[in-house]
UniProtKB/TrEMBL annotation:
Cofactor binding notes: Binds 1 zinc ion per subunit.
Protein localization: Cytoplasm
EC number: 6.1.1.16
GO cellular component, one term: cytosol
Motif 'HIGH' region, residue range(s) on this chain: 43-53
Quaternary structure, from the entry: Monomer.
Gene3D superfamilies xrefs: Anticodon-binding domain of a subclass of class I aminoacyl-tRNA synthetases (1.20.120.640), HUPs (3.40.50.620)
One BP term from GO: cysteinyl-tRNA aminoacylation
Annotated binding of ATP, by residue: 293
Keywords: Aminoacyl-tRNA synthetase, ATP-binding, Cytoplasm, Ligase, Metal-binding, Nucleotide-binding, Protein biosynthesis, Zinc
One Pfam family from the record: tRNA-synt_1e
Protein name: Cysteine--tRNA ligase
Species this chain originates from: Candidatus Kaiserbacteria bacterium RIFCSPHIGHO2_01_FULL_46_22
């Protein structure tokens, strides 16, 4: 395939990403040539993840696919919070892990706290895979990085950014004048509006725990206890990716407290800018309420599959909204997404199943790439995909190659082998003779207007595990 080597590679449009830190779309430039480092805040593993969480892992997946297409090596981390995340992000409320352990009748011990989340970690990883996300370079479990977290707290202590009170070590936000860049936090307003019950020993209500003392946890020079939630992410980003990283992602709720906390710790410890591009996804809601375990609407992929929806149907639905706009989930909308994706799957695995992929159509490639590189404009990419599917001017071979290219960026399950794609659609490759006979008998019954008999035959066919599709060129069977 020497010819392929000399084919002109279309020039790649620049990548623009919306940076929450500046409120603008900026052209992406990696810190290190040819490599992108990316950190994504992972789940607190006290329960299964829900369909809202999946949106937060779709974001780094789309970025990874785009960066890989541009020839970058991607080093990415998703962390697993397995201690110390309180139900209130501002160091108050119940510890989520302990809440989960109590729910399941575990005795609260450190050993149990390490064992209890294992099934949830596994189900998170497998939901991610089923959803079409590439695994990150590493999943980092917070309890595996205790020494790194302690060391980072010590560095901040030595540099004078911390103070001790009765329940632990705190970061003093007023020592970091740049505090609150994400979401434009005004420290004065926070002070003025602080609720009376916030920890009175804190110097400022926005000060946050670096170390919390308690009966459970690890030993340190500050006593037994846990590192705080924000120090976990900064320490693991440092340990797995380096002191400065290109992209950091998370749901929009994380930006105010958690990510501003991460910036403060990281930048005070190193004196360098921590993250090049902060990216935050908007929520998935239901009836305009955030999807959340506590709201009782925290559906999982498994719930969708119980209703007959594949993970790709949900992914396709999500991709029809831009990641920075709220996506309000309804079953009807999911139904619509499934129908749209089915049209594409039938085109690829039925109409084009005998076709050998040809060349990627450059015009469509450029349009899709331009959309995805424009701060992940997936709605435009999908509209373009439908336009391509309908375009009679593109040869079937080139159409297939181009759809497969789009799929490498969006992962909608359109790039599988023909046999797998056809089997999933229930395409019947060889119809058993008795079914051919039943189908013929039904046709005769219909033509002689014996509808009772025709219905009986339909029921028999259905009972054998087939669905009848009546079309302009006669009836076809599909496996259920
Ligand atoms: P958590 O386990 O609550 O820390 O959440 C893990 C990730 O999912 C974080 O990035 C959250 O911001 C994100 N997330 C949680 N709920 C939703 C939602 N309803 N829609 C989108 N992202 C969410
Ligand atoms: Zn985090």
């Amino acid at each position: 395939m020497l010819f392929g080597l000399f084919q002109k590679r279309p020039t790649l449009p620049p990548i623009y990403l919306h940076n929450t830190a500046t409120g603008r779309k900026e052209e992406f430039k990696s810190l290190q040539s040819g490599v992108v480092t990316m950190y994504s805040c992972g789940p607190t593993v006290y329960d299964h993840i829900h369909i809202g969480n999946l949106r937060a892992y779709l974001l780094p997946d789309l970025l990874t696919r785009l960066f890989l297409h541009y020839g970058f090596k991607v080093n990415s981390t998703v962390n697993l919070t397995d201690f110390g995340h309180l139900t209130d992000d501002a160091d108050a409320g119940e510890d989520k892990m302990m809440k989960g352990m109590r729910r399941e009748g575990y005795e609260i011990t450190l050993e149990n706290m390490l064992a209890f989340p294992v099934p949830y970690i596994e189900s998170f990883k497998s939901d991610n895979l089923d959803f079409g996300n590439l695994p990150p370079s590493q999943y980092a479990r917070a309890s595996d990085y205790i020494a790194e977290q302690i060391k980072l707290i010590e560095t901040l202590e030595q540099k004078g950014y911390t103070y001790r009170i009765s329940d632990g070590v705190y970061f003093e936000v007023s020592k970091f004048p740049a505090y609150g860049v994400l979401g434009n936090i005004d420290l004065e307003k926070i002070r003025a509006g602080a609720r009376v019950e916030t920890n009175p020993e804190k110097h400022h209500p926005a000060d946050f725990a670096l170390w919390k003392n308690g009966d459970l946890g690890w030993d340190s020079r500050w006593g037994k206890g846990f590192p705080g939630w924000h120090i976990e992410c900064a320490a693991m980003a440092f340990a797995t990716l380096g002191k400065q990283i290109d992209v950091h992602t998370g749901g929009e709720d994380l930006m105010y407290t958690h990510h501003n906390g991460e910036i403060a710790q990281a930048e005070c410890a190193t004196g360098k800018k921590y993250v090049g591009y902060w990216m935050h996804n908007a929520f998935v809601t239901m009836n305009d309420q955030k999807v959340a375990k506590s709201a009782g609407n925290g559906f999982r992929l498994q719930h969708l599959s119980d209703q007959g929806f594949a993970p790709a149907d949900y992914r396709f639905w999500l991709l029809q909204s831009h990641y920075r706009t709220t996506a309000n989930f309804t079953w009807e909308a999911l139904e619509g997404a499934r129908a749209g994706l089915l049209r594409l799957r039938r085109m690829v695995y039925e109409e084009l199943s005998e076709v050998v992929p040809g060349k990627i159509d450059q015009k469509y490639q450029e349009r899709v790439l331009r959309a995805v590189a424009d701060d992940l404009d997936t709605p435009t990419a999908i509209a373009t995909l439908f336009e391509l599917a309908k375009d009679q001017k593109i040869t079937p071979a080139n159409k297939l190659a181009t759809i497969q290219f789009v799929d490498s960026l969006l992962a909608l399950g359109l790039g599988k082998g023909a046999a797998e794609g056809r089997a999933e659609l229930g395409v019947v490759e060889v119809l058993p003779t008795e079914l051919v006979k039943l189908l013929q008998d039904r046709e005769v019954a219909r033509q002689t207007r014996d509808f009772v008999r025709a219905d009986e035959i339909r029921d028999e066919i259905t009972a054998r595990g087939y669905l009848i599709e009546d079309g302009s060129d006669g009836a076809k069977l599909r496996r259920k």
